[in-house]
């Protein structure tokens, strides 16, 4: 297919949109937002179509549905076509020819962030295993943990660890080649390479690396890219080259990724990163402050406050600190104290506001601390950690709210007041000599914003 004129492209795109709509794959709102109102067929050259979208979020959504989109477009043009998705501002900077001839060298540019090192990574209970595993592949690449698969929710340090491996290798093994790839870029570049007929060249280059670091593998949704990746993967592992992968979920729960890849991902070591507990969150804040040159003083209890409120996502935790310093420049307080911080975040939707304390909030905080559900602590289960969590919740309801035992009983599956009293007394005893319970109570109170 030679380059097409605009009317032809428009006609093809409208037919493709009609097919997408009639497939009922998306509801009206999604269809309009992601396809009809934002995407545009920019060009089709040979068997490569370029679709242009305004923002990254559009690109992300389309990339997640790229096989589907290719199928519909291929149906319209009556031959198989591949699709690359570009942002409007990317296209604006290119000549028409270069849109389809983007240099694949981008793949091999050094993308390792210098400040994401092992030194700048705070180790806590939530990431100890992942940190140790990341170090182990630096010391013994391709030997024990291949691939190393690091998974966990957004903003908890997976990418940081990947770059830390990169920085370690660059500094200590300068002769070794490493390649960091963000999965979505990998798909885009492979699609372009298919168009430019230089996939083999790219594969050969990738096969030369000693470390392959792949970020956010859940975004490797496109089937041809998975096929190519599968071959590369086997070759690298057979040659004892180290592969490290990050993902937002455990390999076995990956959706849209071929089973043969999933089973290979599970064959090495899978380690998780979780949300930092209070001390680690506070240490991260202190670490992030080390490099700053702010002249204003931040009070320690503000760090406690941020560590308590934002610990579920380190990116937000870091963001909260930046926001405070930024607002301090604007409003110029003498120091950043708790009052100032609370005022700044008073309407922040990602933190629970200081509602009146009640049994429900206590139960929720205890559950979050122990990783349980409310149904579990309200149940009759005698499993040790559930029972312990229940004792703590009962204890806090009694000491913080001064609730009668009968009423507490209602909160915990209609238990008899004597059972609740026994539960409370047990916790009072445990708190006298068991440090782990003292810590738990301290941290849960912190979570609730209660000071002793
Ligand atoms: N333990 C830690 N010590 C220091 N900084 C951390 C730690 N954990 C996370 N961070 C910081 O939090 C921010 C977000 O981390 P990162 O980008 O690695 O998250 P992620 O898990 O890869 O998230 P996503 O899944 O959204 O890509 C980064 O600035 C990173 O430096």
TrEMBL record:
Stretch list, region Domain IV, binds dsDNA? 329-452
Region Domain I, interacts with DnaA modulators: what ranges?
A: 1-90
The record's listing under SUPFAM superfamilies reads: P-loop containing nucleoside triphosphate hydrolases, TrpR-like
SMART domains from the UniProt entry:
AAA (SM00382), Bac_DnaA_C (SM00760)
Entries under CDD domains matching the protein: AAA, Bac_DnaA_C
Which compartments is it annotated to reside in?
Cytoplasm
Domain annotation Chromosomal replication initiator DnaA C-terminal: ranges? 358-427
- State the oligomer form and interacting partners: Oligomerizes as a right-handed, spiral filament on DNA at oriC.
What's the protein called, per UniProt?
Chromosomal replication initiator protein DnaA
Organism classification, top ranks? Bacteria, Bacillati, Bacillota, Erysipelotrichia, Erysipelotrichales
- Tell me the name of the encoding gene: dnaA
